[in-house]
Amino acid sequence: GMICLYDSQQEILSIEALQQTENQTLPGSTQIRYRPGEGLVGTVLAQGQSLVLPRVADDQRFLDRLSLYDYDLPFIAVPLMGPHSRPIGVLAAQPMARQEERLPACTRFLETVANLVAQTIRLMILPTSAPQPPQQSPRVERPRACTPSRGFGLENMVGKSPAMRQIMDIIRQVSRWDTTVLVRGESGTGKELIANAIHHNSPRAAAAFVKFNCAALPDNLLESELFGHEKGAFTGAVRQRKGRFELADGGTLFLDEIGESSASFQAKLLRILQEGEMERVGGDETLRVNVRIIAATNRHLEEEVRLGHFREDLYYRLNVMPIALPPLRERQEDIAELAHFLVRKIAHSQGRTLRISDGAIRLLMEYSWPGNVRELENCLERSAVMSESGLIDRDVILFNHRDNPPKALPNGGQTEDGWLDNSLDERQRLIAALEKAGWVQAKAARLLGMTPRQVAYRIQIMDITMPRL
What we know:
Strand content: 5-15%
Function: Required for activation of most nif operons, which are directly involved in nitrogen fixation.
Pfam family, one: GAF
Oligomer: single chain
Shape: globular
Protein name: Nif-specific regulatory protein
InterPro entries: AAA+_ATPase, AAA_lid_NorR, GAF, GAF-like_dom_sf, Homeodomain-like_sf, HTH_Fis, Nif-specific_regulatory_prot, P-loop_NTPase
Region (Disordered): 128-148
């Protein structure tokens, strides 16, 4: 198989990658060129459509410049689609089987691979030239749109952990282009904040940022809300209504909980991603939309694909630039900064001065936060309400226990084990637990109800010297 890319300046199609069969060498293969419409590969580029031959020798357009293919076997070539649904290359391969009944499945597989390859090429290669702004949305061409909007710049994202620094670097890179982004993470980790930052730091910042939760509506209302409807399309449709895709034209559409979407919606979303086209519910007019998609999910989409609950081709279309948000329990070093930031936010909303003590911060760092940043904010707001003096201290911290109480608060510290004695400061309790565990951090973590990572972090910031065992 091979990948060919089109040079629009020289109007030639050249081989950029070639997978040869075992023990075959093809010197000079990268020098082979095709013109649009020349041979099978050039025809696919010119027409922008897949081509499937049950037997390659049956088509006179086959040039065989590589002297590589078996004339009695099938041949499949699919276009690599670039911006504005224009072909930027061709992916071609020869299945090593003669069964015609398998060709549709092979073609679908190659088209899925081609989608992923094309998106990667757009991300890694095409940005080296000047980006072409979408013609349908002159608003995007404004130079000031490249300046981050107030309130959504990266300086407003809280966290100095290595994971958050890496995420901020990714946002800076991906914001510059129209690449589809899939934000993954547990509920409450801040996926919408990431989508906001990408949009408002992108060339589309002057256009609309439209949000939609795919789990918020039943299937019979979901398509109308997203694609719009014509007057009389169903009972109660007394006028034409634009959907979220039209409202986001020229801008960004954030699809939260994409893993909850139905098969029907997935098929229509795939068409928009591939062709930029849609119809309103009850209408037959094809509308073109220029929308950047940022999707988010807390589901394991690979498993959903394996189970048949999520389309594989849509998964590859969405997962071009994945951003994985770690849960708060895995970035404990960010909790102190987050807490101070949220306390300032709560103080502003309540119109008063609020402070949080170091003891309260240490207590917050000992909790596992199953609800992540959202739960932390709720906890601090409850604590602020209970604080009459304006000081949030340990005694007013109210956790949402449910079935997951604060792991480092065993029954008020009334226990015969000294390493759980809350009258000791945190450093003394940690040393006591390490001594009891024979200085094995994993065992000490179990004693304290923490993770080994939390223990290691505290050893570092508290300057505890570990003996050599």
